[in-house]
From TrEMBL:
Pfam families reported for this sequence: ParcG
Record lineage: Eukaryota, Metazoa, Ecdysozoa, Tardigrada, Eutardigrada
Protein name as catalogued: Parkin coregulated gene-like protein
InterPro entries xrefs: Parkin_co-regulated_protein
Residue runs in coiled coils: none
Any GO MF annotation of the entry: Hsp90 protein binding
Taxonomy, superkingdom: Eukaryota
Organism: Hypsibius exemplaris (Freshwater tardigrade)
Length: 213
C-alpha cells in the first residue's frame, strides 16, 4: 500500500509559503543584501543587512595618565604603608598644608588607572584629600570637571564605579559644592540668552528655572 507523504509547508522572511525546504534555503542564500530603512529593502529577493554594532558600551583605551607620570617621577609626597587592616597611604606632608590646586586634579586624573599600585594610590589618595580638605576643596572644583569626564568616558565598569563613589564623596565632603553647581546653572540661565534654559534643561532634565518659577 502506498502512503502519501505529507508536504511540509515553510515560510520565508516575507511570509511567502514554500513547499520545498531545501529550495527555500537555497533561495535564501542567494538573496541580495541591502541596507535597512531604504527603498531597496522593499524589493523582492533581498535580505536586509543586520545593524552595525556601535560599540558604545565597549571600554575605551585609557592611555598614559598624568598621575602615572608624576608618580613615576616621585613628585607625590606619598608612600605605601602596611598595617593590620591592610594597606594605606603614608603622607609625608600634613594634608591641611598640601596645595590642593596642584595635587587634587592630578589625583582625579589617576581615577582612570586600573593597575596596581597606580589605581590604589589614586583612589585612596583622592578620598584622603576629600576627607581632610574642608574649605580647600570648593575653589578646586572647576579643575575637577575634565578629569571626571575623562574617567566616565572610558566606559570601563571599574573606573566608572570608582569615579561615581568619588563624586558622591565630593558632594558630601563640602556643603557648598552642591550649591556652587546650582548657582552656576542659574547664572548661565540669567545671562546665557533666551535659549539658555532650554539647553540646560536638555542636558540636565531635573533642573528647574530660576526665572520662570
Amino acid at each position: 500500500m502506498l502512503v502519501k507523504k505529507e508536504k511540509q509547508v515553510f515560510y520565508d522572511t516575507r511570509g511567502v509559503k514554500s513547499i520545498n525546504d531545501k529550495a527555500a534555503k537555497a533561495k535564501q542564500a542567494h538573496k541580495r543584501v541591502v541596507p535597512g530603512f531604504s527603498t531597496q529593502s522593499r524589493q523582492t529577493n533581498v535580505q536586509v543587512a543586520k545593524p552595525r554594532i556601535t560599540g558604545i558600551f565597549k571600554p575605551r583605551p585609557i592611555g598614559l595618565t598624568l598621575f602615572r607620570k608624576f608618580y613615576e617621577r616621585g613628585d607625590f609626597p606619598i608612600a605605601l604603608e602596611h598595617c593590620a587592616k591592610g594597606s594605606r597611604i603614608l603622607w609625608k606632608i600634613p594634608l591641611d598644608k598640601i596645595d590642593y590646586h596642584h595635587y587634587l586634579p592630578l589625583f582625579f586624573e589617576g581615577l582612570r588607572e586600573t593597575t596596581h599600585p597606580y589605581e590604589f594610590f589614586a583612589r585612596q589618595g583622592t578620598h584622603d584629600l576629600l576627607e581632610h580638605g574642608g574649605p580647600l576643596i570648593l575653589p578646586v572644583v572647576p579643575q575637577l570637571i575634565m578629569p571626571l569626564k575623562r574617567a566616565l568616558n572610558t566606559h570601563n565598569p571599574q573606573v566608572m564605579c570608582t569615579t561615581l563613589k568619588v563624586i558622591q564623596h565630593l558632594i558630601l565632603c563640602c556643603d557648598l559644592c552642591g550649591e556652587a553647581i546650582n548657582e552656576t546653572l542659574e547664572l548661565m540661565e540669567r545671562h546665557g540668552g533666551e535659549d539658555a534654559f532650554i539647553n540646560i534643561k536638555y542636558m540636565i532634565p531635573t533642573y528647574e528655572s530660576c526665572l520662570l518659577n
